[in-house]
Amino acid sequence: MSRVERFAGGAIGEPGNRLFLIEVVVDGDATAYVLEKLQVAALAEEAKRLLQGRGLIGIGLSLDPGDVHEGSPIAFRVGGLQLILLDDSDTATVVLHSTEDSDPAAEYELSLAQLDAFAREALVVVEAGRPRCPRCDLAMDPDGHNCPRSNGDLRNHRP
Q1: Which parts of the chain fold into alpha helices (H)?
Q2: N or C: which end of the chain has fewer CB within 10 A?
Q3: pLDDT at 63
Q4: Which pLDDT belongs to residue 12?
C-alpha cells in the first residue's frame, strides 16, 4: 500500500463532455484513474459521511488537493471503490478496482485531512457540470433540452 502525497478528484473537458479522474501522487509520480461522475460523487459523499461521524469534517480545510492534469498516465478505468476507515487510525485506505480482471487493485493510504480535502473539492467539481432542468432535474445541454415533463424525447439525452 502506498502513502500518498496528493489525492485529487476532478474532471477534464467541458460540462456534458467531461472525463472524471482521480489523480494520485506517490513519491512525486502522478497516476490517474478514470471514473464515472457518480463514482466520484459517491466516494466523496461517503468520505464526508464517515468523517462527519468522527466529528472531523473540515479537518482538511488548509489542504488544497489541486487539480487533475490531462497529461497524467491513466492506470485503468475504475469499476469498484472501497473506502476503509479503522476506528483506531488517523488514516484512510482507498482501494480502486479496475473494470478489467487482469489489472491488480490500487490501494492507497491517505490522511483524514487529505480525505476531507478530496471530498470537499470533488463535490465542487461534480456540481460544476451542466445546469439541471428545473422541471425534471436532468442535465441540460447549452443548446437546449427535451424535457420529458414537457413530453420531450429523451432518445438523444446524455446523462
Answers
A1: 37-53, 112-127
A2: C
A3: 84
A4: 92
Using an 8 Å Cβ cutoff, are 22 and 37 in contact? Answer: no
CA distances in angstroms from 38 to 80, 123, 157, listed in the order given = 12, 10, 17
Distance CA 26, CA 24 (A): 7
pLDDT at 61: 86
Q: Where do the structural domains in the chain lie, given as residue ranges? A: 2-128, 133-159
The residue ranges of DSSP E strands in 5-153, in sequence order, are 6-12, 19-26, 29-35, 74-85, 91-98, 106-111
The bridge status of strand 29-35 relative to strand 91-98 is unpaired
Please tell me the pTM assigned to this model. 0.82
| pLDDT value at residue 14 | 81
Mean pLDDT in consecutive groups of 10 residues from the start of the chain, 159 residues: 85 86 94 95 95 90 85 95 89 96 95 94 84 79 74 60
- Chain centroid to CA 149: 30
Sign (positive/negative) of CA torsion 66, 72, 78, 80? negative
